[in-house]
């Protein structure tokens, strides 16, 4: 039986124009790494136009994948998963660069993978009552995807848009080969459901963005919901 220290874990941090928050985020992750030395940190700079890449380079312990052009969140995350597959990591954890994710919950999302309870563990803001509130518009979108995914899978996913998630080696290989480009979090739930892989949600704490600004406007949110809905329905039609 493998010991905890024998696991290779890669934290994938996609970052686009995050110069206001990335330093604080990396300092927190490196502090956690003192207690979890088997964890590596990889920032995927998604063609940022600000000083994000320069700031990451100042952290010698952090792996930097510096993409020459902006691929979008899906392309950036998949780049991290390709790196994890190439270097044979056992577990990969997606972690936001803007400081919303709580670094102290890392083991909370990793443990169900180590224990073999699931293939992907999603850190959810809504499994239990937490301090997170979010805007009414964002909450509406989360409820919408919870309803849509329930119709298609008959399973309840309370936080389908959460980007705080851990995956095992089998899913790393799948995502390295195929991953949605735009706002992929809800879509990959149906993708893994179609592959008959296990998904678990676990309660985590999240904060508001700690710096910079979100690129998602109310108009883009509506466009996002429409586009992702079509992608999810297409996933449902695909036969293995």
Mean pLDDT: 90
How far from one another are the termini? 33 Å
Question: By helix and strand content, what is the structural category?
Answer: alpha/beta
In this structure, how is the largest beta sheet organized? 7 strands, mixed
Weakly predicted, low-confidence segments: none
Shape: globular
Give the total of beta strands: 7
For the biggest β-sheet, the strand order reads: 3-2-1-4-6-5-7
Helix segment count?
8
Helix content: 40-55%
How would you describe what is shown here?
The protein is an alpha/beta fold and 240 residues long. It is built from eight helices and seven strands. The protein has helices at residues 22-33, 52-57, 72-86, 106-114, 136-153, 169-177, 185-194, 218-237, and strands at residues 9-15, 39-46, 63-67, 91-94, 120-124, 165-168, 199-203. It has a seven-stranded mixed β-sheet with strand order 3-2-1-4-6-5-7, with helices on both faces. Helix 2 (52-57) links the parallel strand 2 (39-46) and strand 3.
List keywords for this structure.
240 residues, alpha/beta, 7 strands, 41% helix
Task: Detail the topology: elements first, then pairings.
Layout: E1 9-15, H1 22-33, E2 39-46, H2 52-57, E3 63-67, H3 72-86, E4 91-94, H4 106-114, E5 120-124, H5 136-153, E6 165-168, H6 169-177, H7 185-194, E7 199-203, H8 218-237
